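Q: ABC transporter permease, please. Structure only.
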Amino acid sequence: MNTQTPLPAPGAPLQHYVSIAPFDLQSVEAMTPEQSKVFQASQLRLMWWKFRRHRLALVSGLFLAVLYFGILICEFLAPYNLHTRNMDYIYSPPQRVHLFHDGQFVGPFVYGRRMTLDMDTLKRNYVDKQDDVQRIRFFCKGDSYRFWGLFEGDRHFVCPAENGQLFLAGTDRLGRDVFSRIIYGARISMTIGLVGISFSFLLGIVIGGLAGYHGGIFDLIVQRIIEVLQSIPSIPLWLALAAIMPITWSPILIYFGITVILGLLDWTGLARAVRSKLLALREEDYVLAAQLMGASSSRIIRRHLIPGFMSHLIATATISIPGMILGETALSFLGLGLRAPITSWGILLTEARSVSVIAFYPWLLLPMLPVILVILAFNFLGDGLRDAADPYK
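A: Structure for ABC transporter permease:
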């Protein structure tokens, strides 16, 4: 049986099998609802879908968001004022929070303490008084403070009992609550990375972008400057630049001085990475098309070249911010960074520079814990953002 389609007769018009209806740009009739949702999604939405599949990065982002929100209201969150001294409880160890007393549910509370002095070692020993139940209060009145140095207030999220104590992370040599000082110190330590990375990115993208796009003598000079700066050991350079800041400067000027120093020392690696990327991307056809259409160099770099390696920039930022936090912590720990009355995690760690202090009062090392958690969170967040923004995945 012959199943072949017969050929048309010579001279006969051919039959058309293509629709001659006008093409509808918005037509998605051949797509399922799921395919249509992906097809019409914006680039930011696609990035968000990829990012939220990275569970560790998502948790890290939420953790950092909570911390950055907390530094806005640290006066409200801290149980005590930054400078409150409890002279009867010097070097008091952390108190445990309990829920049950004598088998009955009481709610969150701590036991009162009694101090005895060891005359052989002159060490203060604290013993819980099991009959002194001190319930923790919430949304209560406590130490007065100036919110952001502007408004008077005395409301706190958590407070000790009336005439009681609440030292969740112990106290230091002046009887100041370490937990409250960690909360206050987060405002400086976590913002110094953001301010420093702003300087670093501004210099790195502008200088590296111009060097990679134009090349020539400017590129040669920039590369020699970068090589000189990178050949200098970073820690001695930090120490030298921090030491030249006048001791008469106010704490705010010292704060911005440290951020500028960290930003000026961190831009070289980013500038070299931007230069290498632009050297490769400037030869693409779309760059030539933009040049023929009269686009300026700044527009080509900003709108066409930088988005091509945005994932690299995101990864660099999330690595640089923890590096700047560690830089400020190291300078302050060595006594060459921020100084009192400013409080940062590095300044808090200066209390634990002595081996004997660490041996007798190990809770003074607790400010190291948020430093570790923040650095890990930034690294995990950077991994997720890099994968989400990578155009080649």
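A: Brief note, in case it's useful. The mean pLDDT is 82.
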